[in-house]
Amino acid sequence: MSEESHTSRPNPSAIPGAVVSRLSLYLRELQHLIATGKETTSSSQLGRRLGFTDAQVRKDLAHFGHFGHPGIGYKCVELIGEIRKILGTDREWQVALVGVGNLGRALLGYRGFVQQGFRIVMAFDTDSAKVGTEIEGVEVSHLSQLGEVLKAKKIELGMVAVPAAMAQSVTDEFVAAGIKGIVNFAPVTLQVPEGVSMVGVDLARELEQVTFTVANKLANLNDQ
């Protein structure tokens, strides 16, 4: 008897963040495989391409159900659908962005968001030269209108791309408007109440993870 795909929905708090992060990697790799004409893959192939063991891949997916087919492995299109369902991206999410400086403009211009189920539908700033304009087809409103617009348009997610000194107040406004998920690009730790999901993206910190490895490898080579 073949094993059919089946997705279960565990309590999000019971799933380690690292597992969710790897799901996103599996999704991207599966999408790449589809683009190159591959219809099926296995846990060993998927793990090898991403630097994980096949056991790790199977363990991560087992948190959410059974997805393999004996003698076939994983059907790429099918597993993409299941992972998107797990991640909640089997539908489109509307996003509001606060801050349309250099980083904000880059975020507005990034086409990958739409491909993965996210659409920035409104942007906010305090610069009078930007308010009332459109950037990458997205209308820019004054920050003072944030709560009113979010509630009227039923926007669900927020992005913070403002200087660190403004980030907490912007986050507080998002929370007051009913936003339950926030991505913070400001280089500061923000406080949110229970029930609001916050993810920080610190690009300098990511570079520090790279330099840690590079610097210490060089140091070890020099010591030999």
TrEMBL record:
The keyword Transcription regulation applies. InterPro entries: CoA-bd, NAD(P)-bd_dom_sf, Rex_actinobacterial-type, Rex_DNA-bd_C_dom, Tscrpt_rep_Rex, WH-like_DNA-bd_sf, WH_DNA-bd_sf. It comes from the Bacteria. Homodimer. Modulates transcription in response to changes in cellular NADH/NAD(+) redox state. This is Redox-sensing transcriptional repressor Rex. GO terms for cellular component: cytoplasm. It holds the Pfam family Put_DNA-bind_N. Signal peptide: none annotated. One of its GO terms (molecular function) is DNA-binding transcription factor activity. GO terms for biological process: negative regulation of DNA-templated transcription; response to redox state. It is found in: Cytoplasm. Its main location: cytoplasm. The keyword Cell membrane does not apply. The lineage of its organism: Bacteria, Pseudomonadati, Planctomycetota, Planctomycetia, Pirellulales. Keywords: Cytoplasm, DNA-binding, NAD, Repressor, Transcription, Transcription regulation. SMART domains: CoA_binding. Residues 88-189 form the CoA-binding domain. Residues 25-64 bind DNA. Belongs to the transcriptional regulatory Rex family. NAD(+) binds at G99, V100, G101, N102, L103, G104.
